[in-house]
């Protein structure tokens, strides 16, 4: 399994999706499966600590999570980004959609 999904609180308010080194279209179905059933009242953290490569499909998948969670910037966080990945996200103006750390 390339993605790891964890819930850290008993109420299921936070789901963390940790991504592998390469985040591309080949992970589409697995990634979608990680957030599709989530309650929109909770929040999602996409942990990018291992990601060194992402393509335009990966950016689209991140937007899909944001849309699924009601287009709420406070409900979807992109965490543990490397300098290179953060630059890609900032160049794409993802800081307007997500909290990025």
Automatic annotation (TrEMBL):
TM helices/strands, residue ranges: none
Start and end residues of each STAS domain: 4-101
Domain of life: Bacteria
A Pfam family that the UniProt record links to this protein: STAS
Residues making up the signal peptide according to the UniProt record: none
InterPro entries linked to this entry: STAS_dom, STAS_dom_sf
Protein name: Anti-sigma-factor antagonist
Protein species of origin: Magnetococcus marinus (strain ATCC BAA-1437 / JCM 17883 / MC-1)
Organism phylogeny: Bacteria, Pseudomonadati, Pseudomonadota, Magnetococcia, Magnetococcales
């Amino acid at each position: 399994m390339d993605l790891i999904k964890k819930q850290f609180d008993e109420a299921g308010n936070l789901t963390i999706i940790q991504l592998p080194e390469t985040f591309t279209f080949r992970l589409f179905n697995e990634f979608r499966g990680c957030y599709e059933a989530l309650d929109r009242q909770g929040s999602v953290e996409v942990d990018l600590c291992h990601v060194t490569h992402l393509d335009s499909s990966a950016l689209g998948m991140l937007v899909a999570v944001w849309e699924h969670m009601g287009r709420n910037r406070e409900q979807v966080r992109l965490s543990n980004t490397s300098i290179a990945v953060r630059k890609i996200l900032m160049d794409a103006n993802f800081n307007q959609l997500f909290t990025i750390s």
